[in-house]
Design a protein that fits this description.
By secondary structure, the chain is an alpha+beta fold. Helices cover 28% and strands 22% of the residues. The protein starts with 5 loop residues before the first strand and ends in a 10-residue tail after the last helix. Pfam families: DUF6505.
Length: 192
């Protein structure tokens, strides 16, 4: 296998809407290679986490470039060069920000995290993965859920919260008196 061929799969951060930018103190950029990030919480008092830190602990994958959090990741093809770049990005953070004793130790830790992330990718490319992290008996536990892309031609209406239908019927238009309902008037009662 040459260095330009695909060597496997890794998770990438996925942002379907801007919610991660509100949920986490620092959101990962869309499309970053990702790891589970549990190592960021090894020395934390998990019972004392609140707000955005608690949300990051419970459901945040970590982007290796930004060290920001992402609720979802997508299984993606990764070349050897991309895998090595992910190791280098994560090793830099482990050494500079997290205090690894030297670059070699940081690279070893980063490589281990990337391998754990790769082990989550025994799924079809395009599968979306979410995580729930918790503390059990003094240990950090991770549980993963997967969603798969719909097959081409699948029911386009499945999963929608609302479906609007135009009709040609002429009939009475329904109206709701929201103020009347708030003031205790029965539904359908006319306001004077």
């Amino acid at each position: 296998m040459t260095k330009t061929q695909t060597s496997g799969k890794l998770p990438r951060t996925l942002r379907l809407d801007p919610s991660d930018t509100f949920v986490f103190a620092q959101a990962a950029e869309p499309g970053e290679w990702a790891v589970t990030g549990s190592f960021l919480f090894f020395d934390a008092d998990l019972s004392a986490l609140t707000g955005k830190d608690r949300a990051a602990f419970r459901s945040g994958f970590v982007g290796v470039r930004s060290l920001g959090f992402s609720t979802l990741v997508v299984v993606s093809e990764a070349s050897d060069a991309e895998r090595e770049a992910a190791v280098e990005d994560l090793a830099r953070h482990i050494h500079e920000r997290l205090g690894a004793p030297d670059r070699e130790a940081a690279c070893a830790a980063a490589r281990e995290e990337i391998e754990v992330a790769a082990s989550l990718c025994n799924l079809p490319v395009g599968s979306v993965v979410a995580m729930h992290r918790s503390e059990r008996d003094g240990e950090i536990a991770e549980e993963f859920r997967t969603l798969h892309q719909r097959a081409p031609g699948a029911d386009p209406l499945h999963g929608r919260a609302f479906h609007f239908v135009e009709t040609d019927e002429d009939g009475p238009e329904e109206q709701a008196d929201l103020l009347g309902l708030l003031n205790g008037a029965p539904a359908g009662a006319k306001r004077a």
